[in-house]
TrEMBL record:
Monomer. It is found in: Cytoplasm. Its EC number is 6.1.1.19. This is Arginine--tRNA ligase. Belongs to the class-I aminoacyl-tRNA synthetase family. The keyword Oxidoreductase does not apply.
Amino acid sequence: MNIQLFLSDRIRHALIMAGAPDDSDAQLHPSTKAQFGDYQANGVMSAAKKQRIPPRELAERVLEHLDLSDIAKKVEIAGPGFINIFLNEQWISQEIEAVFIGPKLGLTPVTPQRIVIDYSAPNVAKEMHVGHLRSTIIGDAMARTLSFLGHHVIRANHIGDWGTQFGMLIAYLEKIQHHHALEMVLSDLEHFYREAKKHYDEDEIFAQRARDYVVKLQSGDPYCREMWRKLVDITMTQNHLSYERLKVTLTPEDMMGESLYNDMLPNIVEDLIAKGVAVKDQGSVLVFLEEYQNKIGEPMGVVIQKKDGGYLYATTDIACVKYRCETLKADRILYYIDSRQNQHLAQVWTIARLAGYVPESVSLEHHMFGMMLGKDGKPFKTRTGGTVKLSDLLDEAVERAGQLIRGKNPDLNETDLNNLIQAVAIGAVKYADLSKNRTTDYIFDWDRMLSFEGNTAPYIQYAYSRVTSLFKKSGLDEKKIMSPVIIQEEKERSLAIRLLQFEEMISTVARDGTPHLMCSYLYDLATRFSIFYEHCPILNAKNEQIRQSRLKLAWLTAKTLKLGLENLGIETVERM
């Protein structure tokens, strides 16, 4: 059960019955302090302001219409009009039982949607660097979460596999007579790309040849298409090695490059002109948007076709969203792209809706994110000031984790030790990013991310292994725990309520694209379990009934931690 949603509906109904406006919101949230109950509703304050009556007076009327006897042991008015709700221990126990026996921790089934998630988007002919990390792991966490909840998720790896850079590369490979592209590795391509760019900028004859190759490529020339395919394959083969290391669920079948939409572009331009959305202006084709104005207050013109007939990113992205809506039948489309692309996407979506390609029922969402910064507050770089390659970052994480873990686990065999090091290292890198609000920049700190204390992956992984160790000592598995949960101690109560809040947390993450909230939840759950473990004897409980009750809470904690981390794309370990 989503407790927050359940209580919010009840309170909203009581507000309306008490005379508040129909659009009143309960403004319910978990209480921050025990004296304020388990949940607190603040919606009376704003509703009373609209009605111009004292908030406490409205709160008293609300309580007359609010029946929570099936879930709460006490409901009280606090301060000027806050409503505090104290959950009933018997109800908590019953709900824990439902979670214990139910699939997916008893989550309420969702109405499935088709959701397209655009994430990662590496560059062709370049190795992935740290700048690709946030899009890749945040997008993948959301793909995992939405799939887990029961939605049909379509992963879209939108790579830039079309355009001038390919004409440059093909022209340069021809210049150096390097036709055996399959023998190349990605580092060769990066070198060739730099040299090709230099020739393109300095040699007009070379530049013209490169532009000619772009035209040939877009026209379907067999040689150009063959070379293009090899360049893309070399790049993506290397990228998928990074995906495998990161435990990212993207596959080669999820690649949807710009080339996919190339054949759609001429028809889209013609259609936009025919519908009066676009106009011809001095040889180019533009869409003038009233919503976006230039410095002198005139509608901004978005170019969708240049004078020479070439298309722009805007044209491709209009085709892209049209394809996702009409062909993939998306109900919701999420873009995990950095914040600098916000206006570009907004303009593209405005045009797509004006043209009727995307109905209002389809949700278009830009889940933007900030940058990874070094301790100096500047974009994270190597010591020499260069871009940090993703593979190098992961190598260093494994090396640092190995130094921490090897000495603490001298009796582990080499295979198990290496698996543990990989799980901790990769988990630490991902969690350090995922635990930060995606809309903000964050400081990359090796020492903090690999710490076994605080809000880190190793801390939560250790909490999970602690429970598995407890069960090994108990000699029981969860199927043999027959006694119901008994809530007697405050520490039991606190842990049980937090376990029951998993559904409302994962629902919020799925709605808003905010995996950092799941990180905060898992950290808080692990902390509450640690306090419970210290104050409530489990294996040495005073009787078998309490022993099994506490083992049930411990098992649910481990199950919740594991599912939460899996939805973030982070592995758990049995021993740590």
